[in-house]
Amino acid sequence: MWNEQLTWPCLFMTDFGKRLAALRKTRQLTQQELANLLDIQPRMVGRWEQEQVKPQFDYIIKLAQALEVSIDYLLLGEKGTHSPVFDIKNKRLKELCKQADGLKSEDQDMICHFLDMAITQEKVKQAIKTTR
């Protein structure tokens, strides 16, 4: 029977350390920042990334939450198990996207329209630059 003190079997954690480091870097977090989110010492994050030790089950859950991925993705690396919105590198934009997800449909449509306009404007600017 599993309990919080047991660690996950190595079978489920192939390339876990590499995946953890990549996710942390994609989210633009330092080991210190991730450790602060988990309330642990930064050296523990480093040991996980170097695969010197495996995290306990309760930290697997906390890591998945902090890195905004499913436990499946964190442990197994299965594609399609994390939301593409979390691939946004800009922290402020990512947070705004998460908050916008809770807005009414018409407010979300207005935000989408504004973003479409901003993106179109940038594309026009780039097209003008390349034709000069």
Short description:
This is XRE family transcriptional regulator. The chain is mainly alpha-helical and 132 residues long. It is built from seven helices and no strands.
Q: What topology does this entry show?
A:
Layout: H1 16-26, H2 31-38, H3 42-49, H4 57-67, H5 71-76, H6 91-100, H7 105-131
Helix pairs in contact: 2-3
GO molecular function, one term: DNA binding
Domain HTH cro/C1-type: 20-74
Keywords: DNA-binding
How is this structure best described in words?
One of its GO terms (molecular function) is DNA binding. Residues 20-74 form the HTH cro/C1-type domain. This is XRE family transcriptional regulator. Keywords: DNA-binding. InterPro entries: Cro/C1-type_HTH, Lambda_DNA-bd_dom_sf. The chain has 132 residues and is an all-alpha fold. It has two domains: 10-86, lambda repressor-like DNA-binding domains (434 Repressor (Amino-terminal Domain), Orthogonal Bundle), CATH 1.10.260; 102-131. It is 61% helix and 0% strand. α2 crosses α3 (42-49). It is elongated. Residues 1-11 have low confidence and may be disordered.
